[in-house]
């Protein structure tokens, strides 16, 4: 009989029983996201979704994949894991809706050093909450335990979402015209971008995540873990009310900042001119600047208070603001599309000074 130690999957860092318990804990939250088109339930080898082709004239499927980035490091540091799943959903569905697509379903991928069922369930419960906010079904996913690659408390998230839009209703720069109003929609915080810089500031300045800095009304950790606002249903409602004749394009403000992302929906020959004086720079961004981040870098790395913009026909601008505000999304007219007088000028430009 060999005296060699018995080798098991669990001893190698993969606990199948813990994975099964995590599925049990998350099942109820996942099932709440079901749409009528979902076929089958959690636990199959693939998620099934019955697209009602008769509902559409010429449907296009849209897809988006993203993650949460280093905001996860703060979640680990504070041992709070119930919000980053909302961030994950926001990053993919708000990219989908930028072209006018309705999010249909989402699948997630969780890689971790050790499956702690309660932690995985908290993460996926957040993903389910985000799917509910977006009207998307969570039709499946994968939890992978990589004990020999990641620390026990380490994890990373990714997701892919699929949506649908009519071919003649795709939004984008092709629809944008001179004179269009740029409607800004307030962000809920840093969203899920710029956190490598945020964390660097927190570390270098010795900021206490449990303390309430001047200008904020809650602990810094709470501010930094505020989930990304999900705009998908609000943007779809705006198109439903005004049509593609009224709403021409959306830009999701992520890495690259407000000007950089708005520029992605500006056609050649035009320029989006946005007036900083129409909103106040968030206190959390000012805090980053007080500890060494230059204004130009803030405006490239952070959303600076605007998480989504819409290019809207000018005659519909006031109605757009009213509809979004009524839906609980603070919105305002931040600028307009103008003829670009200088071919070398940027496609989107911020002017003026932020409101006090």
Question: Could you please describe the fold and organization of this structure?
Answer:
By secondary structure, the protein is α+β, with helices and mostly antiparallel strands. The protein has 2 domains: 9-166, PurM-like, N-terminal domain (60s Ribosomal Protein L30, Chain: A); 173-351, Alpha-Beta Complex (Phosphoribosyl-aminoimidazole Synthetase, Chain A, domain 2), CATH 3.90.650. The chain is built from 11 helices and 12 strands. The chain has a 6-stranded mixed sheet with strand order 8-10-7-11-9-12. The chain has a 4-stranded mixed sheet with strand order 3-6-4-5, covered by helices on one side. The chain has a two-stranded antiparallel ribbon with strand order 1-2. The radius of gyration is 22 Å and the shape is globular. The mean pLDDT is 92. One of its GO terms (biological process) is adenine biosynthetic process. Residues 177-341 form the PurM-like C-terminal domain. Its main location: cytoplasm.
CATH fold call of the largest domain = Phosphoribosyl-aminoimidazole Synthetase, Chain A, domain 2
* First-to-last CA distance: 79 Å
The CATH homologous superfamily of the largest domain is called: PurM-like C-terminal domain
Structural class: alpha+beta
List keywords for this structure.
single chain; ligase; alpha+beta; 60s Ribosomal Protein L30, Chain: A; 356 residues; globular; 4-stranded mixed beta sheet; 6-stranded mixed beta sheet; ATP-binding; Phosphoribosyl-aminoimidazole Synthetase, Chain A, domain 2
């Amino acid at each position: 009989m060999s005296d060699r130690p018995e080798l098991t999957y669990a001893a190698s860092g993969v606990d199948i029983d813990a994975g099964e318990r995590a599925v049990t804990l998350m099942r109820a939250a996942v099932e709440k996201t079901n749409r009528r088109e979902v076929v089958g339930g959690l636990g199959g080898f693939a998620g099934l979704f019955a697209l009602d082709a008769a509902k559409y004239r010429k449907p296009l499927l849209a897809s988006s994949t993203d993650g949460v980035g280093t905001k996860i490091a703060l979640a680990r540091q504070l041992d709070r894991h119930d919000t980053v799943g909302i961030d994950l959903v926001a990053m993919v569905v708000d990219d989908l809706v930028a072209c006018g697509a309705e999010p249909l379903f989402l699948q997630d991928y969780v890689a971790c050093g050790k499956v702690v069922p309660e932690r995985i369930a908290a993460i996926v419960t957040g993903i389910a909450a985000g799917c509910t906010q977006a009207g998307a079904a969570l039709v499946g996913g994968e939890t992978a335990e990589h004990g020999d690659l990641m620390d026990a408390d380490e994890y990373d998230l990714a997701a892919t979402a699929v949506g649908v839009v009519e071919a003649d209703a795709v939004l984008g720069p092709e629809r944008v015209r001179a004179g269009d109003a740029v409607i800004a929609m307030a962000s809920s915080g840093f969203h899920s971008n710029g956190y490598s810089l945020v964390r660097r500031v927190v570390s270098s300045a010795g900021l206490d995540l449990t303390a309430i800095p001047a200008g904020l009304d809650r602990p810094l950790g709470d501010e930094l873990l505020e989930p990304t606002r999900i705009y998908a249903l609000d943007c779809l409602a705006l198109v439903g009310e005004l049509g593609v004749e009224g709403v021409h394009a959306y830009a999701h403000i992520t890495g690259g900042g407000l000007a950089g992302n708005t520029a992605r929906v500006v056609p050649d020959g035009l320029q989006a001119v946005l007036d900083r004086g129409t909103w106040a720079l968030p206190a959390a961004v000012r805090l980053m600047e007080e500890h060494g981040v230059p204004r130009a870098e803030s405006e490239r790395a952070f959303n600076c208070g605007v998480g989504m913009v819409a290019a809207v026909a000018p005659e519909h601008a006031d109605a757009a603001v009213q509809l979004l505000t009524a839906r609980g999304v603070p919105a305002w007219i931040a600028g307009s599309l103008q003829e670009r007088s200088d071919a070398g000028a940027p496609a989107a430009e911020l002017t003026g000074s932020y409101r006090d």
